[in-house]
Amino acid sequence: MLPAVTNVFTTTFDESLKKLVQPAGLVPASLLVLLNLVAIYPSLARVSGPVAAFNDLDDLWKALVVTVIVLVVGYLVSSFSATTARIATGELWHGSKLYGALTTGATARRTALCAEAAEAAPESAGPCVGETSSVAPGEKLTETQRNARLYEIYTRYPSPDGVGPTAFGNILAATSDALWTGYRIDLTATWSQMRDVLAADPAREKALADVDAAKVDLDTLLNVAMVAVLFAFQGLVIFVALGDFSFLPWAILGVVLGYVAYRAACQKAITWGDGVQAAYDLYRDKLREALGVRKTTDFQEQSELWENSRRSPSTRARVARSICVAARSICASARAAALGGGIVIAVSRSASARTAVTDRTGAMWRTAMRTP
Fold it and tell me: 126 in the Ramachandran plot: left (φ > 0), alpha (ψ -120 to 50) or beta?
């Protein structure tokens, strides 16, 4: 019992320690602290007692305090990375009027791109077959222009019924939608197993390393966008409270920096999505072998086999219950999510529980995928 308990606390401590030095948290935290030191600290030192006391410290103590603040802020930024991503995709403000308006605009942009591609070459317009043309009379797209529009559609937009309000959310949805449309493979349900497949062979580790590197860059840029907007809000509040117009340009700078970082995160999300799709293009047969699924004779049968893995709500509920029992987590939420069309995998901090989750998940997916 004692070794198991020790393992739990050791794993928890190791994971917490890693959060302190992750680039996705450390880089945005350093930027936020630096901006505060340059833009806000000099003015607050004249009106705030604690800030003035900090100014009286020796340089060594100042460096130590700043380092601690950067580490703490970096830990908080890393901890809230998932929430930041949910804000960026629109999930946290689903149902609002702004969500609906932005979704309508994104859908219109996708429709316009599809129409132009379909006008240029109706016989090879891919997902754009049947779209109404928006190309002005007499305007003709070159082959390069048409391919550029098709690539933008494939990488930046999911199918019409899956379009969301933000560019970042649509890019992530496009990756999942491409795998489902092409192979009937559910990215959410199989990515963890695909990672194991890539990590098991040194020849495939480079592909996994590229995907992971893109994910780290994506998280870092998204968190930079978040802290930049936070800094802009901070500067705006101080501008209103103190009536000091010198903070207004800093607030504008925060908004601009946040927008630039967000657009860069979107571009990095495309890179991540390309890597993920390439992994499934090349190694989905290895994934099938790892899951113990029977070999298929043609592409159509293979697609039907993958589709069976998430067709039955009762199967999803059984998978969710199995995962919850293994992880000792909250089963009610997982069952509800499974019956609603998805699976929530609650990962325990215990290494032994995580192993049980992985083993039980693999077994249940093998059963599901053998079910006709």
Answer: left
Distance between CA atoms of residues 79 and 72, nearest Å: 11
Residues 6+ apart with CB under 8 A from 180: 186, 187
Half-sphere exposure of residue 229, counting CA atoms within 13 Å on the CB side? Answer: 13
> Cα–Cα distance between 372 and 361 in angstroms, integer?
19
Q: How far is the C-alpha of 305 from the C-alpha of 339, rounded, in Å?
A: 20
**Environment class of 3 (CB within 10 Å of its CB; exposed 0-12, middle 13-18, buried 19+):** exposed
Name, in order, each residue with C-beta under 8 angstroms of 252's C-beta and a sequence gap of 6 or more.
232
pLDDT at residue 27, rounded to an integer: 93
What's the CA gap between 343 and 127, in Å, rounded? 28
Arithmetic mean of pLDDT, 75-91? 91
Q: How many Cβ atoms are within 10 Å of 137's Cβ, its own excluded? A: 5
Looking at residue 357, its pLDDT comes to: 38
- Cα–Cα distance measured from residue 38 to residue 234, given in angstroms and rounded to the nearest whole number: 14
Task: Return the pLDDT at 38.
Answer: 86
Length of the chain (residues): 372
Distance from the Cα of residue 154 to its chain's centroid:
18
130 within 8 A of 122, measured Cβ to Cβ: no
Using only C-alpha atoms, the chain has a radius of gyration, in whole angstroms, of 25
Token readout for 340 is 């609603």
Global pTM exceeds 0.85: no
Give me the chain's average pLDDT, please: 74
Answer yes or no: are the C-beta atoms of 316 and 310 closer than 8 Å: yes
- Nearest one of 25, 37, 22 to 250, comparing CA atoms: 37
In terms of Cβ atoms closer than 10 Å to its own Cβ (0-12, 13-18, 19+), residue 53 is exposed
CB-count exposure of residue 162 (10 Å: 0-12, 13-18, 19+): middle
Among 27-41, 111-125, 136-150, 253-267, the range of highest mean pLDDT: 253-267
Helices (H) and strands (E) in the chain, counts: 16, 0
- Which of 246, 98, 106 shows the shortest CA–CA distance to 170? 106
